[in-house]
């Protein structure tokens, strides 16, 4: 016990004695006071003092009545007496006793008492910190959930380990004062050591392993200790046990039924973790009781059909008919496999009798990609309902063990969990930890002990639980729901289970995991074990159990029969986010035209005035910022607008919520920061009109994958919001590629749901090097679905029809007015499509790149193509060359043309909407300049930018009768040179080509 030495005892200012000693490498302090006892940094401890009169006085007081002193001193004096010769316990000769025993004879004994108490407290703490390492978490009994067979040396797994604490077997019956950091005593303040160890083992080393001592909030730690240590707290009524059994029956028999009917179909069954269904239902019941009425869920493949059937309660026949390969799809698009589809369902929660809406968000195969999407959707629903605390709407995320540990987006999502603009006020995570990922053993799949360690970064408690103990699982679910309701923070449930079959039903797992699967073959089913337990306890009879099984089997059979009546498959019935008022009852747009995007002069003036003012009184803006406002004011007088103006957002705010997620400098003046008052901000655009919609501009964590997923989820919740994500530089979008490919580009085709998210991607070749130059337009264009070889019919409102038919819209606006119009069109369309905008960098400050108010006035609209309006357009027959281009290169071309005096010979036409390709407008231009050569000019390299996309479409327009010449940079691997002069030389070279009238003669 050398580490628990009392170092010194001193008197603090003549009052209570101050004790200091070192324990476990820390210096502890303790003020001895008769009533308060020994208050220390953590636990009240019995103290030894060298100040005899003080202790003597206290001892006399204690002899009068043991209650006169604090219980720690009471315990101390009892121990002193107990350790003295027998027969002296009642002796009332304090001075002699103290001098004779406490002070001279018993100092050593007292020191030992202190040491022993400290030791016991340390022991308790050891269990709280490390008990989970020896908890019996693996239902198979062969694996270590923490990947380590090592047993912490400070847990009393054998009697000899008491020696570490300076204790031995003879101390087992001695009573010890319990610190206030434990609840194992229940009503008891002291317990024999034997009982202390027994209770700690029961709390921390049984079928539940609680990982929480890393949490740096004392109250939260106390809360968890109380939930797991209080004797008898894990009790279930017979009714609760019966409900649990019934849910386990449904879960198990559902998988059995699918296996029987479709033995060779992939379904990613839940066998080995059937307890997931009752677990989720318990979380939902408890959350519903706490006031939650909407739960948004995200989950991977494993057990998904079961969750749809038994948690969300999708009609079984609808699920079963998905197995019919002959059913024809009623909806357009690719559709998706049954274990990716989403769902939305409103029902009554049977336990609470309250309404609850459950939605499961559709997801791609890409594991964990749905996590931030669920968070965004949850945040949006909380926002629209004014649920700032997350008391009504919450999210549940399910994970596989391998994916949870391996996928970086899990970490990104955790990092959003406590940010003001992103928090959903606590997510409950449930990990189906079957201790395998496809064929990969966890020992080669992760470096952390548990698959859940990533959650520790946000101080989320982690409850590991043996999934073959259904009551233990229900208990942690109950605690997790209470935790979320109490602290509004994330929590993780790690269901340690196994996978009875292969990864899918076709796999043979014995090839790769022979020993594990030998054990699995011997493993009794959890339903069998639990039903036998309840029958033995007399909670249900065998007959009742069998009747319940037969009842559910019959439900499945009946649904199977009626599923055969289904003739057609409606993916629409699997929508996770319906927008009932936005579409017709059949889910179609209410019209096929767009409201005008031009604006009244008064509106423009008003927004301009507000944008150039500070609407809050006594608001101290930075002197540098006043410069930003004054020009805007001047601009309003002159009726012009530049790129940084707020008109585009302000004009939408009459009815539309605008959310801009950005960390770009160009938008920083949208939020003003008071220079004198911390955290006081002013968003001028929120001071436009009474009852206007809100304008939110937020910074985010430095993540793209997570944040873009979140914005997509936010945009999913409601069509009447303009959600914009702005990359710092356009090329950073590639770390969010999974969200772009799997959700934004193809989401509607797979899941028939619209999404109007806007990606603002700064793009432009400005000599800034290979990074930061290109937002990779070629990638977006390559994924557009419009046919390059076919000219669509120009009927009805062609512009809108084309937008309706495409999978996303790609634009590069060369004027602020067009930028404003395209955003307004985005929200005024009768449907929603993702919009990708390549936004300017240096062009932000370009003197020519300004628009007059007239370009935004009533009657104006977004220009998909900006024709040449100069001398060339006056006499088109004489024009020798037409240069089509997109984006900022227009200004370089226009300048060069002027310098070379070629205004009559060369027309320059801007393609503002690149995709869907404006076949109608391009055809008009091509027909107008009949004698001219056609050129596509871009500043990007030939294998990048727009060329590969526009070329076949131009050729289709001219019916392959004319070439479309390329002018731009040569093909390259890197998007731009890192050398400024090379950059300028390249520019010079292709400008020369563009205006050399004999460039293409040979
Ligand atoms: C991002 C991504 N990479 C790879 C895969 C292929 N894959 C599908 S399931 C799976 C194993 C998942 O293991 P785990 O997360 O433990 O879930 P389990 O199947 O065991 O429930 C893999 C690698 C995928 N779907 N997504
Ligand atoms: Mg797994």
From TrEMBL:
Matching CDD domains: TPP_E1_OGDC_like
Cofactor(s) required, per the database record: thiamine diphosphate; Mg(2+)
Reactions catalysed according to its record: N(6)-[(R)-lipoyl]-L-lysyl-[protein] + 2-oxoglutarate + H(+) = N(6)-[(R)-S(8)-succinyldihydrolipoyl]-L-lysyl-[protein] + CO2
Keywords: Calcium, Glycolysis, Isopeptide bond, Magnesium, Metal-binding, Mitochondrion, Nucleus, Oxidoreductase, Thiamine pyrophosphate, Transit peptide, Ubl conjugation
Compartment list: Mitochondrion; Nucleus
Transketolase-like pyrimidine-binding domain segment(s): 634-846
Classification via SUPFAM superfamilies: Thiamin diphosphate-binding fold (THDP-binding)
A GO CC term attached to the entry: mitochondrion
Gene Ontology molecular functions: metal ion binding; oxoglutarate dehydrogenase (succinyl-transferring) activity; thiamine pyrophosphate binding
InterPro entries in alphabetical order: 2-oxogl_dehyd_N, 2oxoglutarate_DH_E1, DH_E1, KGD_C_sf, ODO-1/KGD_C, THDP-binding, Transketolase-like_Pyr-bd
EC class name: oxidoreductase
Enzyme Commission code(s) on record: 1.2.4.2
Metal-binding found in the keyword field: yes
Family from the record: Belongs to the alpha-ketoglutarate dehydrogenase family.
Protein name: 2-oxoglutarate dehydrogenase complex component E1
Gene source species: Neolamprologus brichardi
């Amino acid at each position: 016990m050398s580490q628990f030495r009392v170092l010194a005892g001193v008197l603090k200012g003549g009052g209570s004695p101050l004790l200091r000693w070192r324990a476990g490498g820390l210096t502890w302090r303790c003020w001895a006071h008769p009533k308060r006892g020994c208050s220390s940094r953590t636990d009240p401890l019995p103290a030894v003092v060298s100040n005899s009169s003080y202790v003597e006085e206290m001892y006399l007081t204690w002899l009068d009545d043991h209650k006169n002193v604090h219980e720690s001193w009471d315990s101390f004096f009892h121990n002193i007496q107990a350790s003295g010769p027998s027969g002296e316990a009642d002796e009332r000769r304090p001075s002699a006793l103290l001098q004779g025993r406490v002070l001279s004879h018993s100092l050593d004994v007292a020191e030992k008492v202190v040491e022993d108490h400290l030791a016991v407290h340390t022991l308790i703490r050891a269990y709280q910190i490390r008990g989970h390492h020896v908890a019996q978490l693996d239902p198979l009994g062969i694996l270590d959930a923490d990947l380590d067979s090592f047993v912490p040396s400070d847990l009393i797994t054998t009697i000899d380990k008491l020696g570490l604490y300076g204790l031995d077997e003879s101390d087992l019956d001695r009573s010890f004062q319990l610190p206030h950091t434990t609840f194992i005593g229940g009503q008891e303040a002291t317990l024999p050591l034997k009982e202390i160890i027994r209770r700690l083992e029961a709390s921390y080393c049984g079928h539940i392993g609680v990982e929480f001592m890393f949490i740096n909030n004392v109250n939260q730690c106390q809360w968890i200790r109380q939930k797991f240590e209080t004797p008898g707290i894990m009790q279930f009524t017979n009714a609760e046990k019966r409900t649990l059994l019934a849910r386990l029956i449904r879960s198990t028999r559902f998988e059995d039924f699918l296996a029987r009917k479709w033995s060779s179909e992939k379904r990613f069954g839940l066998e080995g973790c059937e307890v997931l269904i009752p677990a989720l239902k318990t979380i939902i019941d408890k959350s519903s009781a706490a006031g939650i009425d909407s739960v948004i869920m995200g989950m991977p493949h494993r057990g998904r059909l079961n969750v749809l059937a038994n948690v969300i309660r999708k009609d079984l026949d609808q699920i079963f008919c998905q197995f019919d390969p002959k059913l024809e799809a009623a909806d357009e698009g690719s559709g998706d496999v049954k274990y990716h589809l989403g769902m939305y369902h409103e029902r009554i929660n049977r336990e609470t009798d309250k309404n609850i809406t459950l939605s499961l968000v559709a997801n791609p195969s890409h594991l964990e990609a749905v996590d931030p999407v669920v968070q965004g959707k949850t945040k949006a629903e909380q926002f629209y309902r004014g649920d700032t605390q997350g008391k009504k709407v919450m999210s549940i995320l399910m994970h596989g063990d391998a994916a949870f540990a391996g996928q970086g987006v899990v970490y990104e999502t955790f990092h959003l969990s406590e940010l003001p603009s992103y928090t959903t006020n606590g997510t409950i995570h449930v990990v189906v930890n079957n201790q395998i990922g496809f064929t990969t053993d966890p020992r080669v799949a992760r470096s952390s002990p548990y698959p859940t360690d990533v959650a520790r970064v946000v101080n989320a408690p982690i409850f590991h639980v043996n999934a073959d103990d259904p009551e233990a699982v229900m208990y942690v679910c109950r605690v997790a729901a209470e935790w979320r309701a109490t602290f509004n923070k994330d929590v993780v449930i790690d269901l340690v289970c196994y996978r009875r079959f292969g990864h899918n039903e076709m796999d043979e797992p014995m090839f790769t995991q022979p020993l594990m699967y030998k054990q699995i073959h011997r493993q009794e089913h959890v339903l069998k074990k639990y039903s036998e337990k309840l029958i033995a306890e007399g909670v249900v009879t065998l007959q009742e159990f069998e009747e319940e099984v037969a009842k559910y089997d019959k439900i499945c059979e009946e649904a199977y029969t009626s599923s055969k009546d289904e003739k057609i498959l409606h993916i629409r019935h699997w929508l996770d986010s319906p927008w009932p008022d936005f579409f017709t009852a059949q889910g179609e747009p209410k019209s096929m035209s767009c409201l005008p995007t031009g604006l009244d002069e008064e509106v423009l003036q008003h927004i301009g005035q507000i944008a150039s003012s500070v609407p809050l009184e006594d608001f101290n803006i930075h002197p540098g910022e006043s410069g930003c406002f004054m020009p805007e004011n001047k601009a309003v007088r002159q009726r012009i607008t530049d790129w940084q103006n707020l008109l585009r957002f302000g004009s939408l705010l009459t009815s539309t919520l605008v959310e801009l997620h950005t960390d770009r400098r160009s938008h920083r003046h949208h939020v003003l920061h008071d220079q004198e008052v911390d955290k006081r901000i002013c968003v001028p655009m929120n001071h436009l009109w009474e009852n206007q919609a809100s304008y939110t501009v937020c910074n985010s964590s430095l993540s793209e994958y997570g944040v873009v997923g979140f914005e997509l989820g936010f945009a999913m919740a409601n069509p009447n919001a303009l959600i914009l994500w702005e990359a710092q530089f356009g090329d950073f979008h590639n770390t969010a590629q999974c969200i772009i490919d799997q959700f934004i580009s193809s989401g509607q085709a797979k899941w028939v749901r619209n999404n109007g998210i806007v990606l603002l991607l700064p793009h432009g070749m400005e000599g800034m090097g290979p990074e930061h130059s290109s937002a990779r337009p070629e990638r977006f264009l390559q994924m557009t679905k419009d046919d390059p070889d076919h000219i669509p019919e120009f009927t009805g409102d062609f512009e809108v029809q084309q937008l309706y038919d495409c999978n996303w819209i790609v634009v590069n606006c060369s004027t602020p007015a067009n930028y404003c119009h395209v955003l307004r069109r985005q929200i005024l369309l009768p449907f929603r499509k993702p919009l990708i905008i390549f936004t300017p960098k240096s062009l932000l400050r370009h003197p020519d790149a300004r628009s007059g108010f007239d370009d935004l006035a009533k009657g104006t609209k977004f220009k998909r193509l900006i024709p040449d309006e100069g001398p060339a357009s006056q006499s088109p027959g004489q024009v020798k060359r037409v240069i089509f281009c997109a984006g900022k290169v227009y200004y370089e071309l226009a300048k060069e043309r002027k310098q070379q005096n070629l205004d009559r010979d060369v027309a320059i036409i801007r393609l503002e909407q690149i995709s869907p390709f404006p076949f109608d407008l391009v055809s008009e231009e091509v027909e107008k300049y009949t004698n001219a050569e056609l050129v596509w000019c871009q500043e990007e390299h030939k294998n990048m930018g727009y060329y590969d996309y526009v070329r076949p479409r131009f050729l289709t327009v001219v019916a392959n009768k004319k070439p479309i010449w390329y002018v731009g940079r040569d093909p390259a691997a890197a998007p731009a040179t890192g050398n400024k002069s090379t950059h300028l030389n390249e520019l010079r070279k292709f400008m020369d080509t563009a205006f050399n009238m004999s460039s293409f003669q040979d």
